[in-house]
Amino acid sequence: MLPATPASGSVAQRMMRGALALAFASACAAPTLPLPPPATPSVRELAAGRYLLVGERGAEPHAIVVIYNRNPAMTLADRVEATEADAEGSWRQEIAASPDDIVDIWQEGESTRSPPITIKLPSR
Which of 8, 41, 44, 85 has the least C-beta neighbours within 10 A? Predict the structure, then answer.
């Protein structure tokens, strides 16, 4: 006949299972890491009032990259542009802008938004 298992062994096992369940539940409830800002893109003037911004692997894959021109003289429709990064996090977007405009750029994914980066477009 086998000796009886002490009751403390089963209590310890239940406590261990409870602790593991609690750790698993709190890990699932933990907030996701914040989305980092995109890397600073290269900027090239295409023509008067048009610039091309290119981010090479500077965003999260498939993130939406939003570009906001702070110039209040522009129409709201011209001040905001957006594009989707590819699977490698690269993106490109042509924007309406003037030399020395200040532009904020951020990325969005699922329900999170990164802090913006701010760049000044080059002078002529």
Answer: 8
